Amino acid sequence: MGSVGYSNETYNEVIELLANGGLPAQSIITSKVDIDNIAEQGFEALIHDKSQAKILVKLSGAH
Predict the structure, then answer these.
(1) Average pLDDT for 9-31
(2) Which domain of life is it from (predicted)?
């Protein structure tokens, strides 16, 4: 998991919500960047755009 500070119970609840459609994953992903562009696009977006919350990093150019 990409966060710390949450209990296993919380993770399990969120995973269940994601699995059954109760929490659409796309609603919490604010941007997507390739790993090769993480500094230029990802970190810059987090610094300059306060609407960014979760940026999905695409590994190996996968879409």
Answers:
(1) 89
(2) Bacteria
Question: Where do the domains of the chain lie?
Answer: 25-63
pTM for the complete prediction?
0.54
pLDDT score, position 22: 92
User: How far is residue 9's CA from residue 14's CA, in Å, rounded to a whole number?
Assistant: 9
DSSP string, the chain: ----S--HHHHHHHHHHHHTTSS-GGGT--EEEEGGGIIIIIIHHHHH-TT---EEEEGGG--
Which residue in this structure is represented by tokens 């699995």?
19
CA-CA-CA-CA dihedral for 26, 30, 33, 39, to nearest 10: -150
Q: Tell me if 35 sits within 8 A of 60, measured CB to CB.
A: yes
